[in-house]
Amino acid sequence: MVSESITYQKEAETSPVYNVLANNNNNICDNLTGNNVSNCVDNNLPTQAVKVAVHVRPLIASERLQGCKDCVSVVPGEPQVQVGNFGFTFDHVYGNTALPSSRIFDECVAPLVEGLFHGYNATVLAYGQTGSGKTYTMGTTYTVGDDKNGIIPQVMDLIYDRMRSSKKNINYQVLVSFIEILNEEVNDLLDSNSPTGTRQDSYVGFCTRVSTPPKASIQIRETTNGEITLSGVSEVEVNNLEEMAALLEQGSLCRATASTNMNSQSSRSHAILTITLRQQRKLELNADNETSLLDHIPDDNLCAKLHLVDLAGSERVKRTGADGIRFKEGVHINKGLLALGNVISALGDEKKRKEGGHVPYRDSKLTRLLQDSLGGNSRTVMIACISPADSNAEETLNTLKYANRARNIQNKPIVNRDPMTAEVQRLRQQLELLQSQLSCCRPNGGAVEDTHILKKKIAWLEASNADLQRELQQARDGLQFCAQRVLDVLIERDELRHKLDLLRSGKTWDEVNGNDEYQACCLNDSLELLHAYTTKIQDFETSINSVEDNKCGTHMDTSLICNDGFSGVHTMQPNGDSRHIISRTPEEEEEAAAKELEHNRFQVSMDNELQELNERLKQKEAEMKSISNADNLILKQQFEKKLLELEEEKKNLQRERDKLLLEVENLACVSDEQTQKIREEYAEKLKLLESQLAELKRKQDSQAQLLRQKLKSDDAAKRLQEDIQRIKSQKVQLQNKIKQEGDQFRLWKASREKELLQLKKEGRRNEHELLKLQALNQRQK
Ligand code: ADP
Ligand code: MG
C-alpha cells in the first residue's frame, strides 16, 4: 500500500486537479474529525454544507476474476473510510462492511424530496471513477419492471406518494427534462428529433445523425436572479408515475454508453435528470363562503427543481484502453471532471471562499449547469462511488479526496417562489395589512370614533384653555394691584409702629417726627392720624381677607379649576358650558381630580390658618392699642409731673423742717419764758411739717406704685409686640407656603396643558393617517 500511495503522489504532481488536492492533504486529514460547520457567508442567508456519502460497491465478477483484493475498510460504527494509510470521514458511508446500500435513499435523498415540496431545490450527484457504480446507485438505467434499487426510481415513487397524501387544495405540476453533456455539447435526451433521439436502435455509444432537421443547439442561460436555465430543452409534463418512468427509460436509452475495458456499459456522458415540481396552493373560501378578491389570488406558488446527476466516470486511457472516438470522449469527460474538481477546490477552500475568490464555473458546461448545486441555491448530496478493488486504489483515493473537499462547500438554499407569485404574495400581504388597518378605521371599528372624540376633546380643551387664560390674566392684574396696595399699607403701618415704639421708649412727639411737617401738630392731631392709619390698615386687611375668602369659595364651588399662574389661586369657568368638561382616560381623570381636590383642601386649610392668624394679629394689635392709647400716655405724663412736684414740695418741706430744727436747737440754750413759747410754736410748726411730710410720702408711695403698674403694662405691651411680630412672621411663612403650593400646582397644570397639546397633535396625525388609508383604499377599489 505504501508503494501505491507514493505512485499517487507522483501522479498528483503532473495533474492540476491532483496538485490542488495534494496541496491540501493536511486539510483532508483534518477532516477526519468530521467537522462540518454551517455558517452564514453571504447576505445573512443560512448556509448548508454539501453532504457527502460514500457508496462502496462490492467486488464485481470481473475484478474477482482478475484476483483483485478489497483494499477499502470501513471503521465500524463510524462514517469513516480507510484506504491504505489514508482515512476519511464523511457524512455517511454505505456498502461493504458499512451500512446497507438500501439506506442511502431514506437517509440522504428522501429529505431532499421532502424539501422539494417546501420549495427547496435539490441535487443528488453521483461521482466516482468509471465502473465504480454511479449509474447503478442512481438507477439511471431503470426500465419499467426492474427492481427499484436505484435512487431515481425511488425518487419518482416518493414524489407521487407525497402528492397523493398531500392536501386537496394544492395543484401540482411535474415537469421532467433529461439531458446529457457529451463532448462538451448539451443533448436533450427527451427530444426525438435530437441527434441522440435515434440511438435506441443504432445504439453503439456514439451519435448517428438522422434525417430530421436538428433543433437549435441548447444554450445555457443565467436569469437575472442568478438561476441557471437551459433554453431549447424539452420539459415534459408528466401526470403520473408511469409517464415519468417511461420518460426516464426513453432518456436513458438515448444516453451514450459504450463498452470499455473498465465497464462494459460505460456512460460516456454526464446525465442530468431534472424533475421540476410546481405547486399552487389555492386559498380556502371565507367561513361564510363569500368569495372575495383574495379568493382569486394563489396563496403560494412554489417551484423547485431536483437534479439527479449521473456523471461519466473519470478514466485513464491506459486502463480503459479507449481509442478513436472513445479516446476523444474520455478527454472531454476528464476535462469536465477536471473543471468540476477545480470548482470544488475553489468552493471547498474556506480561505478562498471568504476572500470571495473566483470560482471557475464557466470552464465547462458541466460546472456551469451545476452552478446552483455547488455553492448556490440548492440542497446537495454528493454520493462518492468507489470500487473496493486494490487495482482501483489510486482512483478510489482520488475520489475520496475530491469528495472530502466537497464537504466544505457551503450552499445557500432558499424557498423558490415563482417571481410573479412572489410579487402577488407580497401585494396580497400588503392588501391584507391595509384591509385590516382599514377595518380598524371603519366607523364600527372604533378608530374613527376615537379620532372624532379626540377632536371634540381638543376643541373643548382649546376653548376652555382660552377662557382660562383670559381669566387668569384678569386675576393676575387684580392681584398685582392688591399686592401693591397691601405693600404700601404695610410700609405705612410699620412706620407708624416704629414711631409708636419710639414714643413708648420715652421720646417726645417732636423728637420722633423730627423736622417733618407734623412737627407743629398737637398731640391730639397725631393721635387722630394714628387712628386713621390703623383704620386704614384694618380696612386693607379686611379686603385681603375677603379676597382670600372669595378664592376659597371658588375652590369649593367647582371642580373645573385652572391655575392663575401667579399665586396658585384657581378660578371657576364663567359658565357651566359642557365644553369645559375635560374628558381624559378614567385613570388620568381620577388622578387629576384627586390632585385638584388635594390642592383645594390645602388651599382652604391654608386660608383658614391665615385667617386665624389675621384674627390673632388683630386681637393683639387691639390689645396693644388699648395699652398704648393716648389717655394712658397723658396720664403717665401727668403722674410723672405730679411726682416731680411732690418731690419738690417734699424737698422744700424737709428744708423748712431742718431750718426749724436748727432754730429750736439754738433756742435750747436760752431759758426764758418767751423762748419757751417760741419753742412750743416751733414744735407745733414742726409737727405740722412732719405731718405734711408724711402726707407727701404717702402720695409719693402711691405714685411709685402707679409707676410700677405702668412698667408692668409696658412689659405686657412689649410681650404683645413680640407676639405680633411672631404672628406676622408666621403669616409670611404661611403666605410663602401658599405661593409655593400654588407654583407647584401651576407647574402641574402646565404639564397637563402640554399633554393636551400632544393629544391634539396625535389627533391630527390620526386624522391624516385615516385620510391616507381612505385614499389608499379608494385607489385599490
Ligand atoms: P459507473 O456508472 O460508475 O461507470 P456502473 O454503475 O455502470 O458504473 O457499474 C459498473 C458495474 O458494477 C455494473 O456491472 C454494476 O452492475 C456493478 N455494480 C455497481 N454497483 C454495484 C453494487 N452496489 N452492487 C452490485 N453491483 C454493482
Ligand atoms: Mg455510469
TrEMBL record:
Homodimer. One of its GO terms (biological process) is mitotic spindle organization. Keywords: ATP-binding, Cell wall biogenesis/degradation, Chloroplast, Coiled coil, Cytoplasm, Microtubule, Motor protein, Nucleotide-binding, Plastid. It holds the Pfam family Kinesin. One of its GO terms (cellular component) is cytoplasm. Belongs to the TRAFAC class myosin-kinesin ATPase superfamily. Kinesin family. KIN-4 subfamily. SMART domains: KISc. GO terms for molecular function: ATP binding; microtubule binding; microtubule motor activity. This is Kinesin-like protein. InterPro entries: Kinesin-like_fam, Kinesin_motor_CS, Kinesin_motor_dom, Kinesin_motor_dom_sf, P-loop_NTPase. Residues 49-409 form the Kinesin motor domain. ATP binds at residues 128-135. It is found in: Cytoplasm. It comes from Marsilea vestita. It comes from the Eukaryota. The lineage of its organism: Eukaryota, Viridiplantae, Streptophyta, Embryophyta, Tracheophyta. Residues 417-485, 603-744 form a coiled coil.
